[in-house]
Write a structure and sequence with these properties.
single chain, 477 residues, Neuraminidase, four-stranded antiparallel β-sheet, Cytochrome c domain-containing protein, Quinoprot_gluc/sorb_DH_b-prop, heme binding, metal-binding, heme
Length: 477
C-alpha cells in the first residue's frame, strides 16, 4: 500500500490550540502573527502533531511504501508544503526549518530501522551462524506445501499438518498421508492448523487438531474447531469435535490457532477474533473469538476456569482481548503459558497469559490500521496486561518454543518465535520473565510457520516457502 506522509484526522490547525496544548505539556511556543514556531524536540513534535493520525509509535507509521518519497529532502518537503489533494496539511507555519529537518530525520530513523528486516544476505548453504553458535539445517520432510503444526510420536515419527487439509506422518524423511481428516475451509488463512498428542498418547493413541470448520448449514460461514481422534494403522477413527468457537463468521482470516496441553490434562486453544475487533475480543458473554480457551481433554469445561458469562456459568475462556494468537507454549522453567500474536501494522506481541486477564485488543495497541489510520491512542490502560515484548514493524510471529536441554547451551532458556513476514527465526533471550535481547536467526530461510523442541533435544522448524520443508537444527562445533 502506498503511503502519504500524513492522512486527514486529528492534526492541530488552529494557532491558539497549538499554543495551548504546547503550554499544557510544558513547552513554549512563539506566536509571530500567523506563524507559530514550536519549541520542542522531534519526538515531542511527532507525538503532538503526527500521532493523532499515524499512531503513537513512529516505527509503525514508517512501515510502508512512500508515495512521495522517503529521503530526507522528500520528507521535509511533505512536512513543509503538504499534499492537499491527499489530505496532508502543510506545516510551514508551525515548524521552523530546523524543526522540519529534525522531524524528517526522526522519521527517517524509523525508516532505516524498518529496513533492518530487509536482509541482504540470502542463504548460500545449509550452515547458519549466529552471535554465539553455528547450526546446520537438516531436512526432515519436504513437499508439504504449508506445514502448519508438528507433533512428535513415541516411535520418533512426526505428525505434520498441511494447511490445505492433509495430515502426514513423517518417518526417516519419508511422509505418509493419514486418512480421516475432516473437511476444512482451506481459504485465506484457514485450513488444517495445529496438532497435539494427548499426554497419555502411548496408552490411548488420541490426537487433537484444530482447523477452520465450515458451518453445517451455511458454507459462507466458518470457525475454529478442535477435533479429537484415535490414530491407528488405518488412519483416524472415533473422530469427535470437542470444541468450536462461536459465533461462526464469514471472514477467512484470524482463526488462531495453537494447541497446548498443560501438566494437569487441560488443553489450551488459541482463537483469533476473525477480523472483527469491534465485537469479538472484548465480549466475554457467549463469544469465544479473540480469546485463549482452557478445556478438559474431552472438551468439557474445568470448574475452576476464571471467566463466567452473565448467567454465572463457567466458560471455556481463559483470557480475552487477543487479536490473532499464532504461538502458544508452556515455559518449562516456570510453568507459565506464553503466547505470541499478530498485531495490525505494528504491535505484534509476546505475552504471559494470566487467567481471567484482558490483553487489550483493540482498546490498547502498539500498531495502526493497514491504511495508516489509528486504532487507539492508548498503548496501555488500567486493567490491561501489557506485553512482555512488542514488535514494530510487525514480524508476523507464528509458532513458539523454549530452548531446553544441552545441545544449544548459549540459547538455553530463550524463547523462539517464527517470522512469517520477514522469513527468519526470532530468538528472545530471557532474564527471568524479562526479555533482554533479541537475535535474528536463519535469515531469509522462508516463512517460518512453526518451531518446536523435539523429544530428542533438537529444534525443529516448519518453513512454508520458497522451499517448504521441516528442518532440524544441528549444532556445529
Amino acid at each position: 500500500m502506498k503511503s502519504y506522509l500524513f492522512l486527514p484526522g486529528a492534526f492541530l490547525a488552529v494557532v491558539t490550540t497549538v499554543c495551548s496544548i504546547k503550554q499544557n505539556k510544558g513547552y513554549t511556543a512563539t506566536d509571530t502573527g500567523s506563524t507559530t514556531t514550536a519549541i520542542a524536540g522531534p519526538a515531542e513534535n511527532y507525538a503532538t502533531y503526527c500521532a493523532g493520525c499515524h499512531g503513537e509509535k513512529m516505527n509503525a507509521f514508517v512501515d510502508r511504501d512512500w508515495k512521495h518519497g522517503s529521503t530526507l529532502k522528500d520528507l521535509m518537503k511533505s512536512i513543509k508544503t503538504g499534499w492537499p489533494d491527499d489530505g496532508m496539511p502543510a506545516f510551514a507555519k508551525t515548524f521552523s526549518d530546523k524543526e522540519t529537518e529534525e522531524l524528517a530525520e526522526y522519521i527517517l530513523t524509523g525508516i532505516k530501522e524498518r529496513k533492518e528486516y530487509d536482509f541482504n544476505d540470502r542463504p548460500t548453504s545449509d550452515i547458519f551462524k549466529s552471535e554465539s553458535m553455528t547450526v546446520k539445517l537438516e531436512p526432515v520432510a519436504t513437499g508439504i506445501d504449508v506445514p502448519w503444526g508438528m507433533a512428535f510420536l513415541p516411535d520418533r515419527g512426526i505428525l505434520v499438518t498441511e494447511r490445505g487439509g492433509k495430515l502426514y506422518k513423517v518417518f526417516n524423511k519419508q511422509k505418509q498421508e493419514i486418512k480421516g481428516v475432516p473437511a476444512v475451509v482451506a481459504e485465506g488463512q484457514g485450513g488444517l492448523l495445529d496438532i497435539a498428542l494427548h499426554p497419555d498418547f502411548a496408552n490411548n493413541q488420541l490426537i487433537y487438531f484444530s482447523y477452520s470448520k465450515p458451518h453445517p448449514d451455511n458454507k459462507r460461514l466458518a470457525t475454529t474447531a478442535v477435533m479429537r481422534a484415535k490414530l491407528g494403522r488405518g488412519g483416524l477413527s472415533e473422530q469427535q469435535i470437542i470444541f468450536e468457537a462461536l459465533p461462526y463468521a464469514p471472514t477467512r482470516h484470524h482463526y488462531g490457532s495453537r494447541l497446548v496441553f498443560d501438566g494437569k490434562g487441560h488443553l489450551f486453544v488459541s482463537v483469533g477474533e476473525r477480523g472483527n475487533e469491534k465485537e469479538n475480543p472484548q465480549n466475554t458473554n457467549n463469544n469465544q473469538l479473540g480469546k485463549i480457551h482452557r478445556i478438559n481433554d474431552d472438551g468439557s469445561i474445568p470448574a475452576d476456569n476464571p471467566i463466567k458469562d452473565k448467567s454465572g456459568k463457567v466458560t471455556s475462556l481463559y483470557t480475552y482481548g487477543n487479536r490473532n494468537p499464532q504461538g502458544l507454549a508452556l515455559n518449562p522453567f516456570t510453568g507459565e503459558l506464553w503466547e505470541n500474536e499478530h498485531g495490525p501494522r505494528g504491535g505484534d506481541e509476546i505475552n504471559i497469559m494470566q487467567p481471567g486477564k484482558n490483553y487489550g485488543w483493540p482498546l490498547t495497541s502498539y500498531g495502526i490500521n493497514y491504511d495508516g489510520t489509528t486504532i487507539t491512542d492508548k498503548t496501555t490502560a488500567q486493567g490491561i496486561i501489557d506485553p512482555q515484548l512488542y514488535w514494530i514493524p510487525s514480524i508476523g510471529p507464528s509458532g513458539m518454543a523454549f530452548v531446553t536441554g544441552h545441545k544449544y547451551k548459549p540459547w538455553k532458556g530463550a524463547v523462539l518465535s517464527g517470522s512469517l513476514r520477514f522469513q527468519y527465526l526470532n530468538l528472545s533471550y530471557l532474564d527471568g520473565n524479562k526479555i533482554t535481547k533479541e537475535e535474528k536467526l536463519l535469515k531469509n530461510i522462508g516463512r517460518v510457520r512453526d518451531v518446536r523442541m523435539g523429544p530428542d533435544g533438537y529444534i525443529y522448524v516448519a518453513v512454508e516457502k520458497p522451499a517448504a520443508a521441516i528442518y532440524k537444527l544441528i549444532p556445529v562445533e
